[in-house]
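The protein record quoted in full:

***
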Amino acid sequence: MFSLSVLLLTLMLLNSGLLISADTGVISVQSTTYGRTSSLICSFDRTPSEISNTQCSVDVSAVSKRCEGKNSCSILASNSVFSDPCFGTFKYLYISYTCESKCKCYCTE
């Protein structure tokens, strides 16, 4: 049996929609967090108080439930979907995933 990881992507999203796509395979979600773990990521035009709390994130299983094994999926990165792990802090959605190739095995005698 043949298996191949074609691509490893990390996505960070603000309060916007997300389309994950695996053109040549299916999505395999590695990890997901919503909140803030770095004061540098998504910090442009933000006040220090909006980005200083870097200990506020939650692991979110909703991304895996919605995207695992599919060719594409769409997710809204917002408090209404993932709740608010840190009020007053500017948050982002972090997704690490691979695109696994679809394999067909043929057996011959």
Q: What stands out?
A: The first helix runs from residue 48 to 51. Confidence is low (pLDDT under 50) at residues 1-16. The helical segments are 48-51, 62-67, 79-82. Residues 5-101 form a domain with the Jelly Rolls fold (CATH 2.60.120.740).
